[in-house]
Amino acid sequence: MEPAAARLIGAGLAAIGTGAAAIGVGIIFGQFLLGALRNPSASDGQFGRVFIGVALAEGLGIFSLLIAILLLFVVKS
């Protein structure tokens, strides 16, 4: 396999993490809504934790996008 082809395959695999981050954010908000509908009085205390979870999921998605961009445009074979 040529190094340029391996670089493109690696960038594509790293870009999968951005989609996984979107799925993770959807799961976090879905589970929060499920819990808030079951116990509305406890939802105020959990709302801050939801944003922490979303920030961590989005941070990992942005990190994987950064790796994909670095593989595409910075790393030369």
Concise description?
The chain is mainly alpha-helical and 77 residues long. It is built from two helices and no strands.
What is the CATH architecture assignment?
Up-down Bundle
What global shape is seen?
rod-shaped
Helical region count?
2
As a percent range, the share of helical residues equals over 70%
**At the fourth CATH level, what is the homologous superfamily?**
F1F0 ATP synthase subunit C
Largest sheet: none
CA-atom Rg in angstroms? 18 Å
Q: Stretches where pLDDT falls below 50 for ≥5 residues?
A: none
Query: Termini distance?
Result: 12 Å
Tell me what the structure shows.
There is one protein chain. The chain is mainly alpha-helical. The chain has one domain: F1FO ATP Synthase. The protein is built from two helices and no strands. The chain starts with a helix and ends with a helix. The mean pLDDT is 90.
Topology (SSEs and partners):
Layout: H1 3-38, H2 43-73
Helix pairs in contact: 1-2
